[in-house]
């Protein structure tokens, strides 16, 4: 998201005074014609003084008597500062005091504030995808105040840990650093993260930002990360969720069916995603529903694209009806940056004027515009009778309640002591290393050639090869800030042994093969060779989808030839978000081991070295399918359906619907140990009794297949408290302590047409010492875990024999679970 010109950004960096002053500067170049709210904020460029009572000070809050006094205002008379009143009442009191022009001045992401009322300006746009970022207008780094913040691995790698408590813990650490930066006057309180779009297609350029291809895993990540960012300990579930305090505000984006960035000229600003109701419910909306209902997120961002011909930000069914009414959002809905302008200018959707576009999105339920369209055109939209002032009041109420929950008005005593020392602390940096270690996936390990035992390699020579061998910025990915420091792969090994560094390719594109020779010579000399290959933001990024699944340029030659020349074991380390067809290396006996390390964040090099030396036993699992290269020749990226389309020869998408061969499947991952499962007898059949008013629903079965008398039942119709549970004993058969993820899938009864092949219903990561075993228990709700989404987008539970699959990363243990549906 977030279109922004380079000029705009650089302007942002120059203006490192108070936020109020920066906002004034932005707008001063554009003194408005169509927009005429009374005075802009008081500080002028010539006096950007922090002494201005209006400027934002460290830890200050709106309802501060001293502030009002210096403004010549009596706070006692202002109901919005009356702490005895509920937030909604205070927000209404504030909004009722504003003129229409003043109200409109608060609807863009850089607000004007209302000097007359002592309401300061606020910049809504900050980002914290995997650490506090400087993308946006509110948050920045400089060498005097805060030079950097902890940069965790990109989300795709953190996701691969399948460790819910890690996901939440990272959120907590990021929000601690964010609060500290807010106290120092260099960050906002509203962060437009995480990105929870499902990776429908392996070419998607923003895969690195997301938790992968499974909607349930993505939703579970969202719930944990959002709770980590937002929750204030002890106030997680109060009776009134509209007054629940927030540490910082998170935002689940981009809603919805957003996953084409720029593919052969089809870009996100113009793309119309043609989506069936079935896919919408089952895949595209599911993580957002979890984010709102289970994560209680305080914001959702609508996307640039259209869904079935309607821009998402202008669709009342998607916004108001679904997010707010059906799911019960406590918070605000924001547009992706300049979305409204895109709707008017490029999509030209139903509208011939800017006012019309503004009216449409406001009425659809869009509260905040990242951009200038609300600011510039809402006045005329009201004057021309296209939208009611009441709609503006509603939007503002949603916004101010969130700011009140954040302590923007009353302060946040719990967080006011957070300071510079709370940013980039040793503990936080160590968590960044831990996250990378937990996510790293071991893909191949012939003859257990890894770990490299330090006693064998410590005083020997290791060749460090490949275009990512000294990766620094590449490890950080996008939506990053300035990291506390970098530990590149080279740094990770330097000092542990004699290192010969010979990149072999000058960059990721690797267009020049002449450098390969030196890499071969290094490998020939060394006792072990580690090749760091892969891709980076020059291949997969925002506004840049991939066109193939291969390594760029001469990278494959580099790997082949170095491996052939090598004297010792060869370890290939891939840095990427999306899967790469490395079938050539998988099948090559002279490459003994392969590791996927995502983009591993600021401590990535250390984490990789810890895994290779066996200081850490890897347990990560692939969060996306690694398809073979020809997969992308079989279907265009723009075809949205998840299910195969036989007439067009399109294979299905994601492990849930794709049945063909892969380089590595979703969920794959090895360890230096092996793990097996023992399942004690558990319940293998369940009866769901239907009441008199409940109907059996039909399902489509393959020709000639047995069709049960009661094929399925609608989930909405039943209470559905029924659960099934089991204990699994997990044995670590190795001589090394292990970290193991148990992934549980359900597979629907055979012969039902159009269902998923299987779906993840749960997972747990456990630490199991060498040669020991541990009992892990699972409990599932029948409807959530055995349900399918039928052709008409209903959640139904089919009767018949379901299969429960327990996947240890390599193979599976299964047991049947028979569901009987019967009338009383
Ligand atoms: C908003 O109005 C200002 C002042 O007229 C103008 O400079 C700016 O370009 C406008 N922005 C948009 C997106 O219309
Ligand atoms: C801090 O200073 C260094 C050296 O001048 C510079 O390279 C870096 O960009 C500065 N960092 C920030 C956040 O401005
Ligand atoms: C999961 O993450 C938590 C929080 O970082 C960590 O303490 C725990 O050891 C991790 N569990 C496993 C099995 O790796
Ligand atoms: C914020 O606090 C820091 C650290 O106490 C101080 O150095 C800085 O000058 C303060 N900034 C403002 C705007 O008060
Ligand atoms: C590794 O990268 C860093 C940062 O870009 C650079 O300063 C350093 O010189 C590089 N090391 C080598 C050996 O090229
Ligand atoms: C290894 O570390 C030493 C000491 O910090 C440094 O002088 C040397 O340049 C490093 N070598 C490489 C290849 O980065
Ligand atoms: C490849 O690199 C070599 C050595 O640096 C250089 O002499 C040659 O011109 C390069 N070739 C191309 C096509 O860039
Ligand atoms: C595959 O994509 C990469 C990255 O865009 C590009 O460098 C390379 O040339 C492509 N390879 C082929 C065979 O098209
Ligand atoms: C690399 O080696 C594999 C066999 O191990 C071969 O199939 C593949 O074509 C080779 N690739 C290149 C670019 O030489
Ligand atoms: C692995 O072991 C087998 C059997 O001992 C041997 O044939 C093979 O060459 C070994 N592979 C590697 C990569 O060492
Ligand atoms: C697990 O593996 C161990 C060691 O190979 C074996 O003794 C045991 O029977 C296995 N258990 C199951 C349930 O397969
Ligand atoms: C069966 O499939 C057809 C389309 O192939 C669809 O129209 C019909 O609604 C489906 N029936 C059920 C019960 O899902």
From TrEMBL:
Transit peptide keyword on record: no
GO BP term (any one): arabinan catabolic process
This protein's name: Fibronectin type III-like domain-containing protein
Region described as Disordered: spans on this chain: 29-51
Signal peptide range: 1-20
Domain of life from the UniProt record: Eukaryota
Record flagged with keyword Ligase: no
Record Pfam families: Fn3-like, Glyco_hydro_3, Glyco_hydro_3_C
Domain Fibronectin type III-like: from-to ranges: 740-810
GO molecular function: alpha-L-arabinofuranosidase activity; xylan 1,4-beta-xylosidase activity
Keywords, ordered alphabetically: Glycosidase, Hydrolase, Signal
